[in-house]
Amino acid sequence: MSRIITEAGLRELAEAWLRDGQAVAGPSEVKLGLIQYRPITAAARLLFDGFVHPANSIKEFFFPRHEPLYRYRLEGSRVVLEDCEPPAVKQLVFARPCDAAALPVLDHVFNWDCADEFYNRRREATTVVTLACSRYDDECFCTSVGLGPAAEQGADAVLFALGGGAFEVRPTTAKGDAAFADRTEESDRTATPFAGPPRRVALPRVEFDSPVWEDATLECLGCGACAYTCPTCHCFDIVDEGNAAGGMRAKNWDSCQFSLFTLHASGHNPRHAQPRRQRQRIYHKFHIYPEKFGPILCTGCGNCARQCPAGLGVLNVLKAIEASHAEHLPA
Amino acid sequence: MSETNGFEPKIVAYVCNWCTYLGADLAGTNRLEYPPNVRLIRLPCTGRIDFNLIVKAFEMSADAVLVSGCHPGDCHYTAGNYHARRRWMLFRPLLEALGFDLRRIHFTWISAAEGRKFQQVIAEITESARKLGPYRPYEANGESKWRPAGLPPPKRRSGDDASLRTTARELLAEGKAGVVIGRGERGPVLARKPEDADRLTWNGASKIALTAYLKRKEVRALGKPAIVAGPADLRALNVLEQESQIRREDIHVIAAEGPGAAPPDFSDLDALLQLEPGERMAYWAGEFDRCVKCYACRQACPLCYCERCIVDKNRPQAIDTSAHARGNFAWHITRAFHLAGRCVGCGACTRACPAGIDLRLLNQAAARAAERQFGYRAGADPKAEPLVGVYSLTDKEEFIG
Predict the structure, then answer these.
(1) Cβ separation of B293 and A252 shorter than 8 Å?
(2) Would you call B56 an interface residue with chain A, using a CB distance cutoff of 8 Å?
(3) CA atoms within a 13 Å half-sphere pointing along the CA-CB vector of B123
(4) What is the ipTM of this complex?
(5) Subunit contact B205:A311, Cβ cutoff 8 A
(6) Which residue of chain A is at minimal alpha-carbon distance from B349?
(7) pLDDT in tens, A132-185
(8) CA end-to-end span of chain A, whole Å?
(9) Domain B11-139 maps to which CATH number in 2.60.40, 3.30.70, 3.90.210, 3.40.50?
């Protein structure tokens, strides 16, 4: 036996959250040909099918691109500090499994040397509902990083399309259970498993000193499109913004692909060329992060390749690394 | 302050030290009364007034801005005001496309002897700002449903792939080029070895302008570049040459067509300008709401070649780095204006944007002003003087009071 819900039922669920004053986010068409995860104000805007992956990730709903930490203002000769709080509302986020799978990975870094209250509170207040994939494109490689089209990691409930506007619901946490309580029907229909993309690359051993970095990544132009649409990239910068009367301290996204990311005050830049910055990105994902926290910092969503203006992306670099090893191995 | 319904506009006036500031002084010594709503900021010359200051004043809750300097022919530094005039001629259309209310931005010439004119100008501006009511920067009044038709798909290049590969292979094999910058199936290709030449194709994918690689240190280190150039690349090369960024003899150009003489298609810009200013602002507010400041627009652009971009300068921080409305508006205004009279219309910024923002429209606003007011098209002639680097005594000034 399984629990099923119709597409209309899912929209009713979203509508009910909105009516309660809670937030709902999910894939929606922002303009012709562009689907992004966006906060939505009407359940009709949610998309459940007809695309492979939105052009961004759901990390924005846990780790916003810009988040004020506190504000200050001058009152006479006194400086008044004012704490900022993440919004108190609950969030319902509809996502792809590869986006949700990034959350348990990110939990490590945001709770390592200090617990990031902003992240944790958002995480607590959010119910993530994923829709298992039933299609993939050339950039998808979840099956190469140990995940798959129905990965449960980070999801509170997983939906499986049954066709005809019906979805099987498999809650994986109490939050997921609560979200779908009284909204599903018993059925004997169950989803047929979908294999997802073929394994595209075996995770190669990453070599620090290798000509492959220059060979494979010289085309990188040093923007942050990959990092900013990646579900796992989490670097941020702390900035102060304001004037003599008042202002704020905020946490803004940052990317290791920017040339100023590692620029020292002395003028020295240890990552002085783009291939070195690309090496850092790949190294962090497949070596530094797993060494420190366990999981790799990639869910195979393929956004880096889809969004890269220069046609690069993690998968292509990994393939190049794999090929270079083969070249260098004795016959 | 005068009796009104409580609203007193704040007016920021950027004035030239040698004329308008002295004019204000004269108004004071002559006991000419003018509204106290104006905050005067003295600068050496209108030619030194960065347009960012105008934007900044609005961000910091000014309700109107005045920029005022010496009459034509009167500049203490000979030509600062002429340079300023030309920049404003390009800046105003850009602000117009963004949906700014141009009635809040004033330009005047006031000499040291014109205390009375200063008095009148301030009184008029204050009155008009009072009527317009408080200004809230970048406030979107609702949501705009307007969508541009968008960039047309890239035109097919007529070149022959086999001969392109032969040329590239020979250049690399004979050491005549250290790198051939071209397109491959997946995206740009930097061919460094003769065998890499087989990956090149005339009609490959690329969201960026190949000429953007000429600014990259890593690419410059490879030796003389050869570039597989389409019409927009040729125009970009012309601008880079005009601006002394490259010497043509240092670059091997492989081209199948000329730089193109057809006028750019401004139909989306026309449609945008049909909207009410408030809706234009709402449109951009909606678009910039998706901007995450990844700077793909800048990196993909052949003409954004500054070693350190103004947005990355933090002493002082002229543009907020945060991806909030204020930071995003300031960034895109700045980028568009820095490209005024320089943008060759390649569309790379728009193609590269992961958030699908049609940035090209902003560049077009300035590009069309350049065409209409100066008969100037960026990249058409490598020998032409850069538009913003020079001035003419006959530049229009009907908008200057």
Answers:
(1) yes
(2) no
(3) 11
(4) 0.94
(5) yes
(6) A309
(7) 999 999 999 999 999 999 999 999 999 999 988 999 999 999 999 999 999 999
(8) 54
(9) 3.40.50
